[in-house]
User: Fold this.
Amino acid sequence: MMRKDYQLSSTVSKVIEEITLWQTERGIIEISQNTLAVPITLDDEVKGYVFHGHGRLLLDAIAETEKGAVGKSIEKELDELFIMLGDKEKIEEYLTATDEEDFTRMGYEDEKGFITRAEDLCDQFFGTRRWDSHQFFHKDHGLIFAFPNRAKRLDILVTKGSKLIYKTTDIVFVSNENKIVLKSPSETVVSSKGKLLVINKNDFLRCGC
Assistant:
């Protein structure tokens, strides 16, 4: 059951052309033309969307230090439903009405089938977090994305200005201007102004100062 403090619209639209949902020097998220989109609302105001189409996520999760680069570039194909919260005004101007073929193309029998799957994703996203939705949807939160992964969990990207947090089942990457934290199953890397600190899973400390 969806929580009472947010709802999905009963009307599904599609994107009229390829658009960029987010872009900084750290990465980019793009979706293709004809991507399905259903609004997420709170108090009858659109706060975000559930999308399903084709797209990509590119993220530079690399820290440049005096000892060289650490981390890796992340590339994710966006072929499953995902959530975006924030920046709704940018999306609205790119939406138009759907027809039966739009749902068939993405593997749905009809509009209701897409909305049902979108509700399931929202239940997973909101149901695993203890927050006040009114506070969460405040505009100061920037952009929030939630992508299903192969482990049937969600990869989360939160971004606001130069601040970025990307969390998956394997890594946590935090970036804020020239400060970076990268945590993986084997080690934690902290980089600040080109200086490097590495702590491996056996608590071995290595400093690249």
Q: What stands out?
A: DSSP finds four helices and 18 strands in the chain.
